[in-house]
From TrEMBL:
General function of this protein: Catalyzes the isomerization between 2-isopropylmalate and 3-isopropylmalate, via the formation of 2-isopropylmaleate.
Domain Aconitase/3-isopropylmalate dehydratase large subunit alpha/beta/alpha: 11-462
Protein name in the entry: 3-isopropylmalate dehydratase
Species whose genome carries this gene: Zhongshania aliphaticivorans
InterPro entries with a match to the protein in the record: Acnase/IPM_dHydase_lsu_aba_1/3 (IPR015931), Acoase/IPM_deHydtase_lsu_aba (IPR001030), Aconitase_4Fe-4S_BS (IPR018136), Aconitase_4Fe-4S_dom (IPR036008), IPM_dehydratase_rel_enz (IPR050067)
Gene responsible for this protein: leuC
Oligomer and partners: Heterodimer of LeuC and LeuD.
Molecular function, one GO term: 4 iron, 4 sulfur cluster binding
UniProt-listed GO biological process terms: L-leucine biosynthetic process
Reactions catalysed according to its record: (2R,3S)-3-isopropylmalate = (2S)-2-isopropylmalate
Pathways per UniProt: Amino-acid biosynthesis; L-leucine biosynthesis; L-leucine from 3-methyl-2-oxobutanoate: step 2/4
Membrane spanning residue stretches: none
């Protein structure tokens, strides 16, 4: 039974940040922290400074270099993106002038925005954080209300600490049961998007709940929420629990001493009340999820690694059928072709989806004492300087390089061609990233998205394959 006192987590997060109602589902929402990167943040900073607008609370604004920077060892401001160094230098100049915190190329804490903002305790449970980048929803994993905005909104948020927002509808995705061994959050989110469509979350703020989510380590929760935007959701989030508190505790920008205790008690109360209303609910059986890989040009085009490419003729919706046919054509695949016979040219482990320490450990466990297939190029790019150092302290870098992977400096790298890094025209890549759109990883590149263990296993096999085939 619903009543007005029973509120969903989303209601609690929204109401605790509502400065005022602007009528007709619009509210002015208080923004706790703004995060920027050099690709879009530089534009917002430059525009603010041209209009002579100051950032009144610069201590709440942070900026990293991740998108277009070079990720090869010994890097400098030069990048494969034509005139990319100008973005980097403009970001540096404006960030210093505005007095915000900058994680510059040589900063030991530099990394991908969505990896470092929780890692440093800048994103916190119960807080609002915005960034001109669509994967800001990643931070919902620890119970933050975080979403991607445009550069103009970023200017507004920096200048006023508020944003005028239309309230999304609420959805709860309840995942009960247990994910099978070798099946991770990445497989789960690809499964959900394949099942309910890339538009399935459009207009909704999505809470992930259920026993499989409670059982999930925090690092996998980041992966799950990261792809809420690939489901077209406004954002995705998970109620904080003891695991969240342990993960956040003591981080650089997290509350300290007495305020930490108060904050932790508050965070633990941030969950959906029994009987709270949701505009939509979906139930997923975790036991039914297999290791999953994309075959097409949209994350919705995903199937079990051991399965086969669907036949567009079997699809009733003419628009979707057309999309599937175009995707098969671009990906150079045939309807009903078995996926684990598809030969790959390259493998990539990295991105804000899967470049945290748990991802690298999981991939390294598959690669240990093994070698990647001949004629295959494989690259691993840790998500942050901290992840990289931790991995090196554990000897994971040596496992990757002994297997034949390149080991690089933190950044978005081959997740997105914006920085110019690519495996080369027309190559077929198995990738731990979140987007498989045409040209996403470079001209004519064919991207198959999968979990880090599937990427590692496929790199060894030289074709798409699951970890089950290795162990
Ligand atoms: C460049 C940036 C705005 C973009 C985003 O919004 O997500 C990028 O990070 C991506 O993954 O496509
Ligand atoms: S790693 Fe990829 S998805 Fe994530 S912010 Fe960078 S470009 Fe976007």
């Amino acid at each position: 039974m619903n009543n007005l006192h029973q509120r969903s987590l989303f209601e609690k997060l929204w109401q605790s940040h509502e400065v005022t109602s602007l009528g007709a589902r619009r509210s002015l929402i208080y923004i706790d922290r703004v995060f920027l990167h050099e690709r879009t943040g530089s534009i917002a900073l430059q525009s603010l400074s041209e209009r002579k607008r100051k950032i009144p609370r610069p201590e709440h604004v942070f900026c990293t270099m991740d998108h277009i920077i070079d990720t090869t060892p010994g890097r400098n401001d030069n990048t494969l993106m034509p005139s990319g160094h100008k973005f980097i230098q403009a970001t540096r100049y404006e960030a210093i002038k505005a007095g915000i915190t900058l994680f510059d190329l040589n900063n030991p804490d530099q990394g991908i925005a969505h990896v470092i903002s929780p890692e440093l305790g800048i994103a916190l449970p119960g807080s609002t954080l915005v960034c001109p980048d669509s994967h800001t929803c990643t931070l919902g994993a620890i119970g933050a209300l975080a979403w991607g905005i445009g550069s103009t909104e970023a200017e507004h948020a920096m200048a006023t600490r508020t944003l005028d927002l239309e309230k999304p509808l609420s959805m709860r995705i309840v995942v009960n049961g247990t994910l099978r061994s070798g099946v991770s959050a990445k497989d789960l989110i690809l499964h959900i998007i394949a099942e309910y469509g890339a538009q399935g979350g459009n207009g909704y703020a999505v809470e992930f709940a259920g026993s499989a989510i409670r059982d999930m380590p925090i690092e996998e929760r980041f992966t799950l929420c990261n792809m809420a935007v690939e489901f077209s959701a406004f954002t995705g989030f998970i109620a904080p629990d003891e695991k969240t508190i342990d993960w956040v505790k003591g981080r650089d920008y997290a509350p300290k001493a007495d305020t930490a205790e108060q904050a932790e008690a508050y965070w633990l109360a941030l969950n959906s009340d029994e009987g709270a209303h949701f505009d939509k609910e979906i139930q997923i059986d975790a036991d039914a999820v297999s290791a999953t890989v994309s075959w097409g040009t949209n994350p919705q085009h995903s199937v079990a690694v051991n399965g086969s490419v669907p036949n567009p003729m079997a699809c009733d919706d003419p628009q979707q059928r057309d999309g599937m046919e175009k995707a098969l054509n671009y990906m150079d695949l045939k309807a009903e072709q078995t996926l684990n016979t598809v030969v790959i040219d390259a493998a990539f482990i990295g991105s804000c989806t899967n470049s945290r320490i748990a991802d690298l450990r999981a991939a390294a466990a598959i690669l240990k004492n093994r070698k990647i297939a001949t004629n295959l190029r494989a690259v691993c790019v840790p998500g942050s300087g901290r992840v990289k150092r931790q991995a090196e302290a554990e000897g994971l870098d040596l496992i990757f390089t002994a297997a034949g992977f390149e080991w690089r400096e933190p950044g978005c790298s081959m997740c997105f061609y914006a920085g110019g890094e690519t495996f080369g025209a027309g190559k077929r890549v198995i990738s731990s990233t979140n987007r498989n759109f045409e040209g996403r990883q470079g001209p004519a590149v064919k991207t198959h998205i999968a979990s880090p263990v599937t990427v590692a296993a496929s790199a060894l096999l030289g074709r798409i394959g699951s970890a089950e085939e290795i162990i």
